[in-house]
Design a protein that fits this description.
The complex is a heterodimer of chains A (151) and B (142). With 151 residues, chain A is an alpha+beta fold. Chain A is 20% helix and 25% strand. Chain A is globular, with a radius of gyration of 15 Å. The two termini of chain A are 28 Å apart. Chain B is of the alpha+beta class and 142 residues long. Helices cover 26% and strands 25% of the residues of chain B. Chain B has helices spanning 51-68, 89-100, 134-140, and strands at 2-4, 20-23, 26-32, 76-83, 106-111, 121-128. Chain B has a six-stranded mixed β-sheet with strand order 1-2-3-6-4-5, covered by helices on one side. In chain B, strand 2 (20-23) and strand 3 (26-32) form a beta hairpin. In chain B, helix 1 runs parallel beside helix 2 (89-100). Chain B starts with a strand and ends with a helix. The chains are: A alpha+beta (151), B alpha+beta (142). Chains A and B meet through strand 3 and strand 4 of A and strand 4, helix 2 and strand 5 of B.
């Protein structure tokens, strides 16, 4: 991670491509970690409209969770440190598949979650997920018990 | 201790929610748009017709909310942007680059309808007051 101003550290995962706008993949501050909206394009580089995207929901969802895990790892974290995710789906009927895939990806870690059905930045994108996590040793926001929540 | 953050520079919120809430160093700002600095019923608040003007006013309003909490954009950690039209994303990024290119912020953007047909952008924000600010912030809001 790169040290920033105001006690913020930038999470810049080597395994992900550059963000498609003037934002960073993640920010860690005060023991809290915010991971930006992540999709099946996030591990690729180049203009957003030129990054190849799998046509099916399952492949996109699996890649999205793999990319989130890459971001967590870059922050020194794993799914056990995740506290909340917001999932944006473009099709309501993909919700069951989402749940099956994330149950597998998260391995039973309890994470608070909100899902909405909306459109995304490319017409072919079917899922985007952002994430809040806490650092294992906490910080003045979450304290050292941040990672000690029992499943 | 959870403190409501009054933002005198902005109009009253459109529902039973606060413009901002601070708990310790963590500050949450509600969804903010190009009419958040205005007062009166939602339907009668003036809204610029162009995306560029709405986006700039929205970020100005968020800047006012940050300032009211004793913060600035360098304290912001995460924003969620809701756009009505996908085609406005490039202009959003151009405006964001111009306004706070030096400040790293996490971001999520998606496309959805907003509370008025002619509203093109809404943004909410999380920020973190700097070390040592917490006590004075807590005492200064009421």
């Amino acid at each position: 991670m790169v040290e920033g101003r105001a006690g913020k550290r930038v999470v810049a995962p080597a395994g992900l491509g550059e963000p498609i706008g003037p934002f960073v993949r993640g920010i860690a501050a005060g023991g809290l970690v915010a991971i930006s909206g992540t999709s099946a394009l996030s591990h690729l580089s180049g203009p957003a409209n030129e990054r190849p995207l799998a046509p099916d929901f399952e492949t996109q969802a699996r890649q999205t969770f793999t990319n989130l895990e890459t971001a967590l790892t870059a922050a020194g974290l794993g799914w056990e440190h995740a506290i909340q995710m917001t999932v944006i789906l473009t099709r309501r009927e993909d919700y069951a598949a989402l749940n099956a895939i994330r149950a597998e990806a998260l391995g039973g870690t309890p994470v608070a979650s909100t899902a909405v059905v909306a459109d995304l930045l490319r017409a072919e994108m079917q899922i985007e997920v952002d994430l809040w996590a806490v650092e294992p040793n906490g910080g003045d926001i979450v304290g050292s018990s941040g990672s000690g929540v029992a499943p | 201790m959870i403190e409501k953050q009054p933002v005198a520079a902005l109009g009253p919120s459109l529902g039973p929610f606060a413009r901002g809430v601070q708990a310790g160093r963590l500050v949450a700002f509600s969804g903010t748009s190009a009419y958040s600095h205005l007062s009166g019923p939602m339907e009668s608040r003036e809204l610029p017709s162009t995306f560029g003007a709405q986006a700039r006013q929205t970020f100005a309003n968020l800047g006012a909310a940050l300032e009211a909490a004793g913060l600035d954009w360098s304290d912001a950690i995460k924003m969620t942007v809701v756009l009505k039209r996908r085609d406005d994303y490039a202009e959003l990024n151009a405006i964001r680059s111009e306004l706070f290119t030096e400040e790293p912020i996490a971001s999520t953007t998606f496309i959805a309808e907003l509370l008025r047909e002619d509203k093109l952008i809404e943004v909410d924000l999380w920020a973190l007051a700097r070390d040592g600010d917490a006590a004075s912030q807590g005492a200064s809001v009421g």
